[in-house]
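dumping this here before i forget
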Amino acid sequence: MLGIAVALALPAALAAADPIQVNPNRPTFATPAQTTQRGVAELEVGVEHTAWRDDADLFFTPYLLKLGVLSGFELRLGGNGLLRQTADAHPAVSGFGDLSLGAQWRFLHQGPLGFDYAVQGDWKLPTGSASKGLGSGEADQTLMALASRDFGRVHADVNVLETWLGRPTIGHDRQPAATVSVSGTMTARWSLTGEVYTIGRTSSAARIVSNLWALAFKVSPRLVLDGGADVGLSHAAPRVSLFTGLTVGLARLYR
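structure:
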């Protein structure tokens, strides 16, 4: 009987000693250098509505599944989920968007200037319908450099990235981007995030500059809820995007 009691109590004791603590990437454009805990599967999912300046709008359900393979190394699977897009004088179209596969490696903890440093690579698969306008129909590759640091109750993320956009006739079109995000803890459960980001121009799109504000509520170490707005600052950026979602630690697969 004693052996059975110990066997039943041990998993709970281990969980209490090493609880799942999520590492939210959403809802911001920025990504922290920190990675998901080793052996933990973590899901980010939300809903977002974007209003463009030409009265078109887009509804989608972004998601990101992360697996902490090693300490400082994670695998990533994400996408825009289900999309519904409307445009003036055109019928609405809906379907699933593109799929993205990637990995992130935090190679330096508290390095120069006290920042954590990481690199991330992503490969976008053209699974969304190009004929419906739900995807480009071409594969893209992205390489990102990440730096993050805590300043007391404030957390800062800086990202610089380059995307090679697939093009049917010219091969690839390079698109740089950068973002700075700052999050402040207001109470034990509430935090506020502000962010400014830019996405560079390409041969077919103008430069985008936007800013984003979000509130997050920490229900528990393994569940965080969020919501906010992204307001475009340049003419090419969407007029406004409203979003809400969550980050949840699904399970610890191994230790």
